[in-house]
Each structure stands twice: as structure tokens, then as C-alpha cells.
Design goal:
The protein is built from ten helices and three strands. It is mainly alpha-helical. It has two domains: 146 residues, no CATH class; 51 residues, no CATH class. It has a three-stranded antiparallel sheet, with no helix packed on it. Helix 1 crosses helix 2, helix 1 packs across helix 4 and helix 7 runs parallel beside helix 9. It is elongated, with a radius of gyration of 30 Å.
């Protein structure tokens, strides 16, 4: 055992991966988070370096009591299957013995600084040990908050899921800033046009979101010609009506 605790980020319950797993498994996102936590605790206790040749997908499903849970983790990149061996990516970076020692050192140094700052006692000295930098799952993350979608319907969520899947397939996964800006643009289109644009762009493998051609109705030449003919006919009819009136 590396310790009697594991580290989990505040934003984990709201990550897109959690919601994609919940949708594919037909369970609540909070249930997904609870089962992930249970599985990560088991891995921290039972597997060295979080790689297990003897670990199987069916075993992980039994631990979480959900059929297909392991494959759902694999589909979002939280489980790696290679050469018949299963591993949890980046687990040692956050929950191995070294990572936990680093987190404990940071906590101890921070507490020592707080004591000195609050009491100003001569007998209290600041620890000379500097805290080790704690690595994060995304080194250059700018915005850790998951943006809220502009429309809360199953049709929009399904279209957005197809769009995210398409971007991953072309090697251009969406980042939080891009998601936030795209949500803002889609909200201006209205739900129906937004859904049509997402499905059109996903189908064609675009990097950006584009509405299908002809998505908005524009008057054709024949429409304008018919309108002109009708106006001329009305004018002639009015002239004839005035000529028939007695002086």
C-alpha cells in the first residue's frame, strides 16, 4: 500500500469524461464518480505501479458492479489495454508513494508557514525544506471549470457528443477554452441550427463548426420574379378599377 488515501481533483465530478461514461452506461454521473473512486482505491491497494497482467476487464466490472464499466473507462482514455495488460495512465503521478510524499511535504510546509504568519512566535521557525512541485494531470491547464452547454436537451447532447468524437478521431480533441467559445457561438444560432451545424461538421470531419449550405432560407430568383409579376398584376387591376368609375 502506498498510503491510506488517494488524491482526487475538485473538478473530477464535472469532467466531460465522467458525463460520457454516464451516458454510455445509462447511469447517473455521480454514480460514475463513486465507482471510479472505489476502483482507484482498489488499484492503489492491490496493484504495483498500477499495471496488472492478471487484471481483467471482467474483474474491474465486478469491483464496480457495473457491466461494461472498464470498457467505458478505456473509451475515455482512463484505462489502457496493451499487449494483454491493463494499466491506469498517470496513476503514479498522482497516487503513487512518491506523489503522496510530495503532497504531504507541501501540506506540512504550508502549515508551518501559516503558524508563523498567524502567531509571530520567536520559537516558531519556518521549515527550510521547500515544497516539491506537484504535477497535475494537465500541465498547461488554463481553465479547470467545465463550461455549461447552451441547450439542455438530449438531442443537443447527442449532437455535441458526435462532434467531440469527430474531433478526437482527427487528432484535434477539444480543450476547455475552445468548448466555452464554441458554446457561445452555438447559443447565437438557436438549438435547431446548432444541432444541424454540429452533425454536419462531425459528418464531414471539419475542424470548425459550419452550418450546412442552404441551412437558412434565401429568396431565389424565381421567388423574386413571381413577386414582381404579382405586384404588376395588382397595379393593372387598380388602374382598370379607377377607369370604370363614372366621372
Amino acid at each position: 500500500m502506498a498510503g491510506d488515501w488517494i488524491k482526487i481533483e475538485h473538478v473530477t465530478p464535472d469532467k466531460p469524461e465522467v458525463h460520457r461514461m454516464a451516458e454510455s452506461l445509462k447511469i447517473d454521473p455521480d454514480a460514475v464518480v463513486g465507482k471510479l473512486l472505489r476502483l482507484w482505491i482498489w488499484a492503489d491497494q492491490q496493484i504495483d505501479n498500477c499495471n496488472g497482467a492478471s487484471v481483467t476487464l471482467s474483474l474491474l466490472d465486478r469491483i464496480t458492479f457495473v457491466s461494461g464499466f472498464a470498457m467505458a473507462m478505456h473509451s475515455v482514455g482512463w484505462l489502457v489495454i496493451k499487449d494483454g495488460e491493463i494499466s491506469f495512465p498517470n496513476f503514479e503521478r498522482h497516487n503513487g508513494k512518491t506523489a503522496k510524499d510530495r503532497a504531504n511535504t507541501n501540506r506540512r510546509v504550508s502549515k508551518s508557514r501559516d503558524v508563523k504568519r498567524n502567531c509571530n512566535a520567536d520559537t516558531v521557525t519556518e521549515s527550510e525544506q521547500k515544497p516539491l512541485p506537484e504535477k497535475r494531470r494537465e500541465e498547461k491547464r488554463i481553465n479547470t471549470e467545465t463550461p455549461l452547454p447552451p441547450f439542455d436537451s438530449e438531442r443537443f447532447r447527442q449532437a455535441w457528443s458526435e462532434w467531440e468524437k469527430s474531433r478526437r478521431e482527427i487528432g484535434k480533441p477539444l480543450k476547455p477554452t475552445a468548448i466555452r467559445l464554441q458554446y457561445a457561438d452555438l447559443s447565437k444560432l438557436g438549438e435547431e441550427r446548432a444541432i444541424a451545424a454540429l452533425l454536419h461538421s462531425a459528418k464531414n470531419g471539419y475542424q470548425g463548426i459550419y452550418e450546412p449550405k442552404g441551412g437558412e432560407h434565401k429568396p431565389q430568383q424565381s421567388d423574386r420574379f413571381s413577386a414582381n409579376i404579382n405586384a404588376a398584376a395588382d397595379a393593372i387591376k387598380n388602374m382598370q378599377s379607377r377607369e370604370e368609375k363614372p366621372p
